[in-house]
Amino acid sequence: MSKLALLGGNPVREASIPWVNTMGSEETEAVLAVMNSGCLSAYYGRAGDKFLGGPKVLEMEQVFAQKFGSRFAISVNSATTALHTAIAACGIGPGDEVLVTPYSMVASATAIVMNNAVPVFVDIDPITYNLDPTQIERWITPNTKAIMVANIFGLPAALNEIITIARKHGLFVIEDNAQGPGATINGKFAGTFGDIGVFSLNYHKVIHSGEGGLLLTDNEELARNCQLVRNHGEAVVDDLNDYETVVLGSNYRMTELHAAIGIEQLKKLDHFLVERRRLAQQFTSGLNQFTGLKGVVVPDGYEHSYYIYPIQYNKEDWGISRSTFAQAMNAEGYPLGIGYVKPIYLIPMYQHKKVYNQTQYPFSLIEKPTQDYQKGLCPVTEAMYEEKVVIADVCRLPYKESDIDDALEAIQKIWMERGKLLEYEAYTVSRT
Ligand SMILES: *Cc1c(COP(=O)(O)O)cnc(C)c1O
């Protein structure tokens, strides 16, 4: 479909801005130094001084722990493996249940299933998109061991409220903070509220090393368990006197190269966040001038890290469908996503409860299932996915103030032309 078919005239922007390369000479030099040392990974999967990795890995853990104010940092090779590490470190396993938000990247829930525990999905708040604390207690059973919270889009969840509930019921709290590095509540960093907080250094995230992940905790026993899971724990536990838990390990180790990049990227985080927050503030005030659009709401005392900027779209006000709105924005040079992610329980693995061949394991370990993952389970999440949420990716470098102005101009143009778009919509529907 040509752009002109959609709106006529010139698009506000000819082509969308590409992804920015945040790798500079600092990262290049740090990587070269590792290359020249020849030591690309110093780990041994056995007890001894190399059980915890080489110099860059140890340095990276130290600078992350310092920056966010945690006692321990444990690096791994992705946030996905970090989330599994966290579940395993807390001793969560077969027959256990973990409460989790369905409105997150699939890994938040997969981590639970990876250790043969069962996710129980708790609906979200329609303003913050994060786990709704008032919905938690109805789902707690004698099997519940933890709450997995995601700080979605970079906004911390209601962590103080959630932790109060968790303490009352003796549950662990694991924070999936892959999207929220540098976000805060009253100055305290997201990722340091729960028993364990998880960070991502994946290419798409606010800071990255290509792939990479990290766990933060103040709890020494949990930190040690994480180290065991990361590096073939079952092989070493005999020889390490101060590691008492028996856990199944894997190879989740980060390379020295990735650690060297991560150290340099962390130094840039504050700068990236200043830019993201400045653009987001401008975008929010512009968006809120429109009927039928709602920008991000940041609760008092919270700071957002704007990994992604979610807009709430109201079809009743606009007349045109969310998808037509997004197509029109795309034609104007501002690609938008719709819905974010499908509620996790609606994906086939949960619908069929099939993980291992034809068995229903691990779901079958819960005698009377707490949830059967039916549609309608989390109505707020489903409404966000199906009707409301539009994802904009303009609050980041290399976008600048004038780009935000242009995006708002494109929205204004679509608002003025929505009659024409309604005709277009009727035409495309009649042809299918
Ligand atoms: C990206 C992401 C992950 C996974 O991170 P990786 O480092 O790519 O494994 C997990 N949870 C959330 C919320 C994410 O956005």
Summarize the structure in words.
It is built from 15 helices and 14 strands. It is globular, with a radius of gyration of 23 Å. The chain has a domain at 25-265: Aspartate Aminotransferase, domain 2 (3-Layer(aba) Sandwich), CATH 3.40.640.10. A hairpin with a 2-residue loop joins strand 6 (184-185) and strand 7. The chain has helices spanning 3-6, 25-37, 55-68, 79-89, 107-114, 159-169, 220-230, 233-236, 256-287, 315-318, 322-331, 348-351, 379-388, 401-416, 418-431, and strands at residues 72-76, 97-100, 118-121, 144-150, 172-176, 184-185, 188-189, 196-200, 213-217, 293-294, 302-303, 309-313, 336-338, 389-392. The protein has 432 residues and is an alpha/beta fold. The protein has a 7-stranded mixed beta sheet with strand order 1-9-8-5-4-2-3, sandwiched between helices. Strands 10-12-14-13 form a 4-stranded antiparallel beta sheet. The protein has a 3-stranded antiparallel beta sheet with strand order 7-6-11, with no helix packed on it. Helix 2 runs antiparallel to helix 9, helix 3 packs parallel to helix 9 and helix 4 crosses helix 5. Pyridoxal-5'-phosphate binds next to helix 4 and helix 5.
